[in-house]
Amino acid sequence: MTHAALNATLNGTSAILLAAGYAAIRSGKVQLHKKLMVTAFFVSCAFLVSYLIYHYRVGHVAFQGQGWIRPVYFALLLSHTLLAIVIVPLILITLRRAFLERFDKHRLIARYTLPLWFYVSVTGVLVYFMLYQIYAPR
């Protein structure tokens, strides 16, 4: 598995854990929800470390797609990147409120954190496929 594929796998795993965590809390399985969300956090942290190491070693990878797909890719990449920056403090605040058992405030912010975090995880996988699989340099 390439380093870029590892990063996509970590992002995809995070998305699956987030979806499972949401399903768990909707089913009233609080302890399972907690375990899944904490695991998603650590998987996302592993992704971030791996991503930074990869781009430190490799540098910039140019998108090779041409035509209508270029603006689609860059719009996706821009939204992914901006929300990836925004999501970090939201995740930390959301987790902190849960660990402090301030569940009323946890729920208030989690309704925004979860879909944004899920979007960042899923779009990370899409960016990987577009950059390294579909439109990979030949």
Describe this structure in words.
With 138 residues, the chain is an all-alpha fold. The protein has one domain (3-134). Helices cover 84% and strands 0% of the residues. It contains 4 helices and no strands. The longest helix has 32 residues, at 103-134.
List keywords for this structure.
mainly alpha, 138 residues, elongated
The tally of domains stands at 1
Distance between the termini: 18 Å
General form: elongated
**Structural class category:** mainly alpha
The H/E string reads HHHH
Query: How much of the polypeptide forms β-strand, as a percent range?
Result: under 5%
Total number of beta strands: 0
Quick overview:
The protein is mainly alpha-helical and 138 residues long. The protein has helices at 3-26, 30-58, 69-99, 103-134. It has one domain (3-134).
Indicate the topology.
Blueprint: H1 3-26, H2 30-58, H3 69-99, H4 103-134
